[in-house]
Amino acid sequence: MSVEYSKLPGQTFYRKTLSALKLQMQPMLLSTSYNSLPTVLSNLRHSFIEVAQKSYHYIHSLPASKQPPNKLITRTIDDLIKLACVLMKRRERTKKDTIPYGYCVSGAQARW
């Protein structure tokens, strides 16, 4: 992630973090048609870890006065989990794909 010093660093952090997760959500890695459930959960976990590392470095590269408040960081984490679930479910509903896609990860499993 590139660091932007803007007037609203919290909103930029939030937007960039969600965008980073979208890049990690590859259908091939999250499909239970190709992978077992433990593999899908592991891939999802690795996606979250990579986004967390990027976000950590982004926050710590900002000056202390521009770092997002803890409340925003907590909201970002909750929204990341919700976004991951939405992206996996939305991918399941796409009928014009030639690649079979299976989804069986619940929101509770993603949150865990």
Describe, in short, the structure shown.
It is found in: Nucleus; Chromosome, Telomere. The protein has helices at residues 9-24, 27-30, 37-61, 70-92, 107-111.
The chain-level structural class is mainly alpha
Distinct helical segment count: 5
Strand content: under 5%
What is the succession of H and E elements?
HHHHH
How much is the radius of gyration in Å?
16 Å
* Major sheet description: none
Large-scale geometry:
elongated
Total beta-strand segments: 0
Q: Assign a percent range to the helix content.
A: 55-70%
Low-pLDDT runs of 5+ residues are none
Whole-number mean pLDDT? 78
- Determine the N-to-C terminus distance: 26 Å
Domain count: 1
Catalytic activity: DNA(n) + a 2'-deoxyribonucleoside 5'-triphosphate = DNA(n+1) + diphosphate
EC number: 2.7.7.49
Subcellular location: Nucleus; Chromosome, Telomere
Organism: Extremus antarcticus
How would you describe what is shown here?
The protein is mostly helical. It has one domain (9-111). It contains five helices and no strands. It has helices at 9-24, 27-30, 37-61, 70-92, 107-111. Helix 1 (9-24) runs antiparallel to helix 3 and helix 1 (9-24) packs parallel to helix 4. The longest helix is centred in the middle third of the chain and has 25 residues, at 37-61. It is elongated. The model has no long low-confidence stretch (mean pLDDT 78).
Give me some keywords for this one.
112 residues; mainly alpha; 65% helix; elongated
Chart the SSEs and their pairings:
Layout: H1 9-24, H2 27-30, H3 37-61, H4 70-92, H5 107-111
Helix pairs in contact: 1-3, 1-4
InterPro entries: Telomerase_RT
Main location: nucleus
Keywords: Chromosome, Magnesium, Metal-binding, Nucleotidyltransferase, Nucleus, RNA-directed DNA polymerase, Telomere, Transferase
